[in-house]
Write a structure and sequence with these properties.
This protein starts with a strand and ends with a helix. The chain is globular, with a radius of gyration of 16 Å. The relative contact order is 0.21. The strands form two sheets. Strands 4-3-2-5-6-7 form a six-stranded mixed β-sheet, sandwiched between helices. Strands 1-8 form a two-stranded antiparallel sheet. The chain has one domain: Rossmann fold (3-Layer(aba) Sandwich), CATH 3.40.50. With 180 residues, the protein is an alpha/beta fold. Helix 2 links the parallel strand 2 and strand 3. The protein binds 1-O-pyrophosphono-5-O-phosphono-alpha-D-ribofuranose (PRP). The site of 1-O-pyrophosphono-5-O-phosphono-alpha-D-ribofuranose (PRP) has 18 residues, from strand 2, strand 5 and helix 3. The site of 1-O-pyrophosphono-5-O-phosphono-alpha-D-ribofuranose has 18 residues, from strand 2, strand 5 and helix 3.
Length: 180
């Protein structure tokens, strides 16, 4: 796996420090009551596990399996909800967690759906936000890091299903991308 990495973009220690700050901000700003965290699978799994363990508030966790990249580097343009059921969100303040905000399609589609299902408010939180024009007008309420418009893997993010277990955010070599 190591030989496939061209460059580490965000080191593990830097991520940890940033998560401390984000968790404190969420604790401070989130309305009273039990927080409902919704994790978008699979990419946000690692980020959410590390972030939520730092949030010292009563909270419940739900997961939603959505996909639009199907393992590749380009969005398919369509956000698929892969679960048979949808969590009960009526009247709740939801903290929606995703790994990366890119075209904005995923966050937009899921936030819309949560509102349709009766969520009182949807607060969005991403580890990474790509500096690029959005297809959907959406920005996250909480952002870990702004990054350039390049394809990244690690810390939950994949290429063809792999590299999610890297402890840092990294850029792949052109050879690793070409190999698929
Ligand atoms: C990726 C990523 C975000 C979304 C962001 O999901 O995890 O959910 O794309 O891109 P967007 O802003 O262009 O919508 P993917 O479809 O790869 O599924 P995964 O989380 O299972 O890897």
């Amino acid at each position: 796996m190591k030989q496939d990495i061209a460059r580490v973009l965000i080191d593990e220690k830097v991520i940890e420090k940033r998560l401390d700050v984000m968790a404190a901000q969420i604790e401070r700003e989130f309305p009273e009551g039990t927080l409902l965290a919704i994790i978008l699978l699979k990419g946000a799994l690692v980020f959410a596990a590390d972030l939520l363990r730092r949030v010292e508030r009563p909270l419940e966790i739900e997961c939603l399996n959505v996909s639009s990249y199907h393992g590749g580097t380009e969005s398919s343009g369509k956000v698929d909800f892969l679960d048979r059921s949808f969590p009960e969100v009526k009247g709740r303040h939801v903290l929606l967690l995703d790994d990366i905000l890119d075209t904005g399609r995923t966050l937009h589609a899921v936030a819309e759906r949560l509102r349709e299902e009766g969520a009182e408010a949807v607060h969005t939180c991403v580890l990474l936000s790509k500096d690029r024009p959005r297809v959907e007008e959406v920005e996250a309420d909480y952002t870990g890091f702004q990054i350039g418009d390049e394809f990244v893997v690690g810390y939950g993010l994949d290429y063809m299903g792999r590299y999610r277990n890297l402890p840092h955010v990294a850029v792949l070599t052109p050879e690793a991308i070409a190999r698929g």
